[in-house]
Amino acid sequence: MSAQIHPILLCGGSGTRLWPLSRKSYPKQFAKLMGDESLFQASARRLSGEGFAAPVVLTGDPFRFIVTEQLAQIEMGPSGILIEPEGRNTAPAILAAALWLAAQKGDDALMLVAPSDHVIPDAEAFRATVAAAAPRAKAGDLVTFGITPDRPETGYGYLELAAGADATAAEPQSLARFVEKPDAERAAEMLAAGNFLWNAGIFLFTAGTILAAYRAHAADLVEAVSAAVEGAGTDLGFTRLAPEAWAGAKDISIDYAIMEKADNLAVMPYAAGWSDLGGWDAVWMESAKDEAGNACSAQATAIDCQGTLLRSETDGQQVVGIGLEDMMVVAMSDAVLVAPKAEAQRVKEAVSALKAKGASQAVQLPRDYRPWGWYESLVIGGRFQVKRIVVTPGASLSLQSHHHRSEHWIVVEGTAKVTVDETVKLVTENQSVYIPLGAVHRMENPGKVPMVLIEVQTGSYLGEDDIVRYEDIYARN
Amino acid sequence: MSAQIHPILLCGGSGTRLWPLSRKSYPKQFAKLMGDESLFQASARRLSGEGFAAPVVLTGDPFRFIVTEQLAQIEMGPSGILIEPEGRNTAPAILAAALWLAAQKGDDALMLVAPSDHVIPDAEAFRATVAAAAPRAKAGDLVTFGITPDRPETGYGYLELAAGADATAAEPQSLARFVEKPDAERAAEMLAAGNFLWNAGIFLFTAGTILAAYRAHAADLVEAVSAAVEGAGTDLGFTRLAPEAWAGAKDISIDYAIMEKADNLAVMPYAAGWSDLGGWDAVWMESAKDEAGNACSAQATAIDCQGTLLRSETDGQQVVGIGLEDMMVVAMSDAVLVAPKAEAQRVKEAVSALKAKGASQAVQLPRDYRPWGWYESLVIGGRFQVKRIVVTPGASLSLQSHHHRSEHWIVVEGTAKVTVDETVKLVTENQSVYIPLGAVHRMENPGKVPMVLIEVQTGSYLGEDDIVRYEDIYARN
Questions:
Q1: A388 CB near a chain B CB, below 8 Å?
Q2: What CATH class does A5-270 carry?
Q3: Where are the domains of chain B?
Q4: Neighbours of B74 (CB within 10 A)
Q5: CATH superfamily, with its number, for domain A367-471
Q6: Looking at the partner chain, which of B316, B378, B430 has a beta carbon nearest the beta carbon of A334?
Q7: Residues B72-125: pLDDT tens digits?
């Protein structure tokens, strides 16, 4: 048992509301939406330092290496990474984390459950608020964090304080009930009433308290998720929840499954700034703006614009807006979104429309993240393709061959260990290797810095599925 | 002397009103704004066939190889390409063409002078109209083509017909005078009056008629331009007007210099459709539209939009608009423009703003056209750069060396003849060559199809100015 607080970072989402920057292959929490760190990195760092244990991360299989890489970039290590075989909303995920943590640290372990795709600019204030909430959680309450509202927002759920509670207090207050997303009129009433806070989906409780609540209010979930945790496999340091058992867990939020039923609820008010960045309008709201209310990225130019979000997310791409009012423009080399800010919640329609067109931009970023690093296609011609491939130190691609293409590899940064049939050699900056069609080959980075390689493929068929894998340290087929 | 009509294609402009597709390095007339041909190609083809001689093209030095390549693509050859050392507006250019043509074909040669960046959808109707105007031009009049107006446009000059003339006639009419761009009220009056046509800047006259007019109304121009034509050099088939003499020619339009002073004016009405594509609003107007009035390119998706132009000009880039009304969005991989259509005439402000920022996108396309073909940078890293290089059949890059970089070349289409120091060899698809730092090298395309090559540079400095040229068939330094 530890007196520390264990951050439980929920990192499974695949939101489409921030397309084109956030895509299914690389969702919002991993993107650098605000500043130089991703939202996930900022979340992990916010809940670190004195009083905090290393985080437990819950994520999906496609994101596990992004999680480890992003944590490594900020020189943090997780105490565990739990892989959800598929997304089942927050109730099963938090239950899995509670069971896992209780087994490791005992029932008294304090869990701070937080989404990893929110913005909380004042990390110090937030940590102080978490510390202030800890005694009430230790005492056996389920503490929710309630954000002081500054507008009649209809996009969030609300928390109604109990009679006599103080919505501006610096310590936990009693909570009457959870309120679902309101209409505009009701939102205005709640803002005026003063005893309502926004539900940020951030919770503090001991593993024992929340497990007891699950047993009382969601016994069926406990059965399925316990089996998934007990049957979990470990794989390269990841804890992979058992898929069959997990499939039996209901897809439900912790608000519905537990919070709306429990009576040991408390709320900790927080007034120092928070946003769920639930759309480009929210990103605009949280961004630094010029005098006319425009939030422009470095490569964006606003001429005679007002209240407009203007972002270029790709190096070497300039965006210019002229005479725009309350618009949002998000540009990347492969996809551009333009809409009034008022239509921010309709961005998912763009994703659906592109899916219907069969356009890969609906779900896929130009950079494709893999266990060993990432690659992007630089140009595709009739019988050739050029890729940039970046391999992280110590990583290795599978031993493979192709039926329809040969490859030229030119190392431009770092050092590669290259296997071609029977020969193995080190290839360094400004050296090249030729992989004939059919040759069995492998690329590794034995060094201490990322290895960057340009691959020029030629052949009659260049699809990713022309691959025969002989060995793979990441156990792919 | 020939009975044929000689098309004189004015191809010097560097308009910024269609940025980002049109840039100084590759202006509007060379872009595929409407359909599969460039405006220049469509203009050349429109004035070809029975009754027309091969065209004379007036263009600037940076565009001479684009002109020859685009004519070759549509299997046309020019009768001459006159290079203007710098743009001096239409009066000196047309005078140079008249002097050059008169020297070749005599004073009776008929000249059809036309901008090469306009849209005239019905080529057959236009050719018939030119034919109908020919007798009046042969008889010694300066015939201007007047477009039947369909709206009170303030962006064009107007032509006022003489009393008793018929603005709907199928033969030339007498012209009272040229009218400058009007304000909205005056434009509405002229549209209502019915005896005004738009000035399209298209003219038909004999070389002798227009030379006489220049001698009568612009004697100083005749002196300077005659010297520029007499002193012209020929170079790879181009006629390069003498720069010092040309510098003495006044920068003035033919309307001001000649047409507003001459009294042998006639106008040929034309009602079958024309646009100068003077802005993205005009492009929208001329484009095919859906039921809601949206003009979308293949990779553009309009969700709940109205009256909007939505274009992606780069392969592999999707553009989505949601809830847009009367907007224009033009996206490329390296630059995006968003504005209300009503602001179309302010696009040049975008170019100015980017120039002030030092952004190359103000003037330069990703593809850089050279005498031997073109290249584009695919990715630039700290110590490496990858380029796609396309060399036209028969073309050759200069014999050169670099102080700071080595290069790997991989041929992916066609065949290259490669010189590296003392060795010369043929390199074909899927073969590579290494050019060590300091080696004297050259790349040629000896074949009949374009040669495509991927170049991977590594070194401490990768600027285009790290080049020592030893020989260049295009006489560059």
A1: yes
A2: alpha beta
A3: 5-270, 287-356, 367-471
A4: 14
A5: Jelly Rolls (2.60.120.10)
A6: B316
A7: 999 999 999 999 999 999 999 999 999 999 999 999 999 999 999 999 999 999
